[in-house]
Amino acid sequence: MTETPIATSEITNDCSCVMYDDNGEPTDEPTSYCYGDCWDDAVAFFTEVTNEFREKNETDWWKVDDIRLWNGEVSGYFHATQVEDILHNMAVRGSWIIRYSVFPDRIEYSLSHHDAPTGSTSVLRGMTQEELEQLW
Predict the structure, then answer these.
(1) 70 and 58 in contact (C-beta within 8 Å)?
(2) Angle between helices 83-90 and 37-49 (to 10 degrees)
(3) pLDDT tens across 17-32, in order?
(4) Most distant CA pair in the chain: distance in Å?
């Protein structure tokens, strides 16, 4: 049996807003002008759907596995309490798109960027106190 994600979505640090028609409904036409709500709305949704997952992490330390870079796949650890900091640490410096699925114990995501235009499969997990003690 396959585990069903809590939520699946995508977020980008490049604004990709849409054009609105006269009734205020979004259209399929991209716009060159960003109203500034794209990032905020995407972060708000990510915050909402990851709330339970983030609250389970008592250490605020996170582990990311298998981010594809120019020299191969890397993994790492970071400390973050703010949702935007978590997102930025899941990604790379530069333009990126994260397509993610949230599960109770992890976030599985594909990170597309200049070194991995087709994406890569990465996983974000919260770290326990015991895992932290093993690192130090």
Answers:
(1) no
(2) 100
(3) 666 677 877 776 655 5
(4) 59
Q: Hey, is 135 helix, strand or coil?
A: helix
CA contacts within 13 A on the Cβ side of 109? 28
- Higher pLDDT pick, 64 / 24: 64
Report whether 109 contacts 57 (CB < 8 A). no
Identify the CA nearest to 103 among candidates 58, 54, 69. 54
| Domain locations along the chain | 7-135
Amino acid at 49: V
The CA dihedral of 37, 122, 96, 94, to the nearest 10 degrees, is 120
pTM to 2 decimal places: 0.80
Q: How many Å apart are CA 134 and CA 106, to the nearest integer? A: 20
pLDDT of residue 34: 56
Q: Judge contact between 49 and 41, C-beta under 8 A.
A: no
Residue holding tokens 């770290």?
127
Taking only the tens place, the pLDDT of each residue in 68-112 is: 777 778 889 999 999 999 999 998 888 888 999 999 999 999 988
